[in-house]
Structures are given as C-alpha cells and as structure tokens.
Design brief:
CATH superfamily of the largest domain in chain A: Type I PLP-dependent aspartate aminotransferase-like (Major domain)
Radius of gyration of chain B: 21 Å
Largest sheet of chain A: 7 strands, mixed
Low-confidence stretches of chain B: none
Structural class of chain B: alpha+beta
Order of helices and strands of chain B: HHHHEHEEHEEE
Number of helices of chain A: 14
Oligomer: heterodimer
Helix content of chain B: 25-40%
CATH architecture of the largest domain in chain B: 2-Layer Sandwich
Strand order of the largest sheet of chain B: 2-3-1-4
CATH topology of the largest domain in chain A: Aspartate Aminotransferase, domain 2
Number of strands of chain B: 6
Helix content of chain A: 40-55%
Number of strands of chain A: 12
Structural class of chain A: alpha/beta
Mean pLDDT of chain B: 91
Shape of chain B: flat
Number of domains of chain B: 2
CATH superfamily of the largest domain in chain B: Lrp/AsnC effector binding domain/regulation of amino acid metabolism (RAM) domain
Largest interface: A-B, 28 and 16 residues
Strand content of chain B: 15-25%
C-alpha cells in the first residue's frame, strides 16, 4: 500500500480517546467527562425542524446559510455582545464551530506560517493548525493568572512569521475567561503586529459573574478578528452540528469558497431549528445558565472542601481542579479514580502538557450525579491517604 | 440570601441537604437551616413530596378524578368559606378557584371509581351553596409537576461517557 499523508500520520491521537476507551467499558460510571450539555434540545426547537421538513424545506440553502438565519445571528450579536457583522457578506453558517476553526486556518495559513495557541487548550486547535500547514506556537497558561492570556506572553510569542492566534475564552478545559479590561491590554499588541485573532467564543452564553467580552468589541482591530460561535453549547444543540463564523468580508469570502466546495451548505433542518432557537430560545438559555451556575457552586465548594484546590471558573461548564498534592500524575489519578470508584474525569494532560497536575470535570450532569460523584472522589482521596500512611515511602 | 433560588432548588429536589444548599448558594449552613425553618413556619414551604407515577406503582389501585364544582358565592365571604368546607376533606388532593364555566376545580384521589363517585355525591354535592358538580375521571397521567411520566424504564443513556 502507498503511504498515507505525512501530515495526518504525524498528528497526535487525541488524549481523550484513550481515556474514553477505558471508561466506556465500565458500568455504573458517574461521568464528569462529557463536553456537551446534559439538557436535551428544547422541544420547540426540535419541533420547528420537524415542521420545516414536513413543509418540504429539505433542499440546499445558500452557501452561506439562510439569509433569515444570518440576519438573526447578526442581531443577536449586536444586541448581546456589541459585535457588529453584516449578514450579507460577513457571516457564514458552518457545520459546527469545528468546521469554522478548520476554515479559518485553511483560509489564512501559508506553509510555514506560525499560529499561536494556548496550553492547556481544546484538543482540536493544534491539529487544525497542523492540517492547514501551519506551525503551532504554544503559550502556556498559568493557574496563578487564572488561565488568562497575558500581554507579556502574547508579545513574546509573536514573530515575523506569526499569522494568527487562536484563542478560546471562556475556555475549555480551564473555565478561564477574559474580561474587557484583560483584552484591552492585548489590543495595542494585536494592532501593531497585524496578526489575525481567531476567537472561538462557543461558550460565550455560559459566562458567569460578569459580562462576556470579546476582542471584536474593539473597533481598531475589528477587521483582524474572526469570531467563531454556534448553537451547540448555548442552546444544547451539539448533535445538530451548527455553528457560524464572522469576519471581515475578504476573509469571509475566502472561507465561503472553501465551504462551498467541501460542504455546500450546512444541514437545512438544523438551520430551521436554529431559526427557532434564536427567535424563541433565549429563556431556555437563561434557564440552563442558572442551573449550570448552581451546579458549579456546589461542585467547586465540595472539591475545595475535600482538599482539591479549584479556582472558581467564570465560564463554560468545566472546572479544572489541581490534583498535584496527591502525588499522582493526572493520568494516574484519573485512571485510578475511574477504576476504583467509577468516576470519569479527563486528565488535564489530554489538553496539553501544562494540564499536568489537573483534571477537567464537566458539570453538565445532574445535581444528584455531582453529589454522588463528589462522595466517591472523597472516598478515593481517603483511600489514597490511607495507603500513604501504610507505605509512607511511596509518597512522592 | 436569595430565598427564591432556595425555594426553586427545594421545589426541584427536596433531597438536597442543607450543606448542599449552602454550597450552591454560597451561604453558611446554619443560615440555610434557619431560613428553611422560617419558611416552614410561615407556611411558604408547606411540605416535601415525592413525584410518583401511579400508572406504574399501583396498577388500578388508585383512581384520580377532577371535580368541577359550581357554587353560589356568599355575601362578604365570596367563595372562601365554601372552599374551605370542601378543601378540608382529606380526599381532596388539590383545589383551585377558577375563572370560566366552573368555580372550583378539585383533584380527588380514591381507591375505586365507586369510592370517588360516592364521595362526590354524598359529600361535595351536599355542601351548602354547591349548585352542581361534574366528575372527570383520569384515564392516564402523562406529566406531573414538570416531570413527564414514562412507561418504559430508563434506557441506558446514549450520551458518550467522555467527549472533548
């Protein structure tokens, strides 16, 4: 057989895959490992998709997506986030935020271009850069600065070859957010260097204790920013695979060119579902938002009380507890936790080397599961302590 | 303390402990305890119930009926006096005063249809100022307190255990 693509052969397999294979063979697992809402898509949204199909709306749409939907997206972002995009030529509806990330990378990268991203980060960013022929440059994020991107780190990472930076706030896996004031300090650096910023804002609606901020809110660099968002997290619509990307018209046309060759148009029933979501779904979003906040409070309090130091995350549905004081590596901790207590958390290292010493827990699960899961983690920590007392030499 | 959130949490899950509630609301546990005691005393919290699907639990051993009751309101008292005469029967599970064709809507539970029918004709219909009743037996319950009653047991969740 002829060899396959070197780029693909050299891609690292996702660290989550390995853990999934382990956890999915077990019964009675309490899972904090799921990166999607536990809520079902609100019924009125599903119903509108079914109705659209019964009305024969089963054909391709415009490449960019239904204009009606793009207009609603533009309006939503104008009102909620003070982001201003023209639905005619600056918005493209995609197959999930994932496609949008891929499109942005492919549209802007020439071979050898550097793209800055963070560690820890969402598992798909580095591969997306590599598949488009770019060279990933990693900025490590620190727990002590609440996993924010600092101006110093950004400045140090930019070279002549830097084409773009790929950011994600509120962040999977850390739950870290950037405020308007945090971003303000980055603006001069971005403006001066002329780099693009691809900003994956899929968790924007899940911002707690403050307002969501975005670099697209700064007019001076507005044309350098690519905003990626979608329906998956805010409206509990992961399986519908619907996202969108907003940028200046030139870049938007380039991405639309790729999209029309590889996708044609995003699935039509999903677009009709999204129309309903944007028109009548805001109360669902706020209901889920409040529920997530209650669960987050419960989980963070419990973890800190049992001795796992956990920052209060201000966004997403993830917490990122520090497990280093147990003396175990992230992978050891998570493997033993699932084997001994049937609780699945994802090792921090699945999201990059800087994730060592942490694990990611998703609270997109019921309150009862959080309580039961925490009881089991407590039991696990107690058993660790007991073993260390029996064999003090094992303590690392 | 946000009492509305506290009530909402308990309404959705009365099994949350005071420590859980304290964690969620970022309050002291002792404060939660005293707040709940106060809410119970003021009859804002009136009880802690479990949502049971009797379609499954006790096959045909329990019947439910909605009773529409028409009555003549009394001078100065309105509907309340008659309402209390009806509501005090333990057979009445839930009762409302409504706008529209009937005055009261009562949910009655009994062991048999006959028992419910006799309760209506012997007790409710005979209450002073009650003009007419209409009994509507429940054939099947689909939803209660926001919870959809399902016939089948929980199937294994199709959600993946771990995703990025």
């Amino acid at each position: 057989m002829k060899p396959l693509s070197k780029t693909i052969e050299n891609l690292k397999p996702s660290g989550i895959r390995k853990f999934f294979d382990l956890a999915s063979t077990m019964d009675n697992v309490i899972s904090f490992g799921v990166g999607e809402p536990d809520f079902d898509t609100p019924w009125h949204i599903c119903e509108n998709a079914v109705y659209s199909m019964s009305e024969g709306k089963t054909h391709y749409t415009a490449n960019r997506g239904l204009l009606e939907l793009r207009k609603l997206i533009a309006e939503f972002h104008r009102i909620r986030y003070d982001q201003h995009y023209n639905p005619e030529n600056e918005i493209l509806v995609t197959v999930g935020g994932s496609e949008a990330i891929d499109l942005a990378m492919r549209a802007m990268i020439n071979p050898g271009d550097e793209v800055i991203t963070m560690d820890p980060n969402y598992v798909a960013y580095t591969p997306a850069i590599e598949m488009a022929g770019g060279i990933p440059v990693i900025i490590p994020l620190e727990e002590k600065s609440e996993f924010k991107l600092t101006p110093e780190a950004l400045k140090n990472a930019i070279t002549d070859k830097t084409k773009a930076i790929l950011i994600n706030f509120p962040s999977n896996p850390t739950g870290g957010v950037m405020t308007y004031e945090d971003y303000e300090k980055l603006v001069p650096i971005i403006e001066e260097s002329g780099i693009y910023v691809v900003s994956d804002e899929i968790y924007a609606e899940l911002t707690f204790d403050g307002e969501f901020a975005s670099l697209a809110q700064f007019p001076s660099i507005r044309d350098q920013i690519v905003v990626i968002n979608g329906f998956s997290k805010a409206f509990a619509m992961t399986g519908w695979r619907l996202g969108y990307v907003m940028s200046n018209p030139h870049l938007s046309s380039a991405m639309t060119k790729i999209h029309q060759y590889i996708i044609m148009s995003a699935p039509t029933p999903a677009q009709y579902a999204a129309l309903e979501a944007m028109t009548n779904g805001l109360s669902d979003v706020s209901h889920m938002h409040n529920e997530y906040m209650n669960r987050r409070n419960l989980l963070v309090s419990r973890l800190n009380r049992m001795g796992l130091k956990t920052n209060m995350p201000h966004g997403t549905f993830y917490v990122f507890p520090n497990i280093s004081q147990t003396g175990l590596t992230s992978e050891e901790f998570c493997n033993r936790l699932v084997e001994e207590q049937r609780v699945a958390c994802v090792p921090g290292t699945a999201f990059g080397e800087k994730g060592e010493g942490f694990m990611r827990m998703s609270y997109a699960c019921s309150m009862d599961n959080i309580i039961e899961g925490c009881d089991r983690i407590e039991a696990f920590l107690a058993s660790l302590e007991q073993k260390q007392e029996e064999n003090p030499s094992n303590r690392s | 303390m946000n009492t509305n959130i506290l009530l909402e949490l308990l309404e959705n899950n009365a099994r949350l402990t005071t420590q859980d509630l304290a964690d969620i609301l970022h309050e002291d546990e002792a404060l939660i305890k005293s707040e709940i005691q106060q809410l119970e005393k003021e009859k804002i919290i009136c009880g802690y119930h479990t949502v049971i699907n009797y379609n499954k639990a006790l096959k045909n051993e329990k019947v439910m009926a909605f009773i529409e009751v028409d009555c003549t309101p009394q001078r100065h008292k309105g509907y309340d006096k008659t309402a209390m005469k009806i509501a005090n029967y333990p057979e009445i599970d839930t009762m409302y005063l409504l706008s529209g064709d009937c005055d009261f809507l009562c949910l009655v539970q009994g062991k048999t249809m006959f028992e419910v029918a006799r309760f209506v004709s012997d007790k409710i219909a005979c209450v002073e100022d009650v003009r007419a009743t209409k009994t509507l037996f429940v054939l099947k319950q689909y939803k209660q307190n926001g919870i959809v009653m399902k016939d089948e047991e929980d199937v294994e969740s199709t959600r993946l255990v771990v995703t990025p």
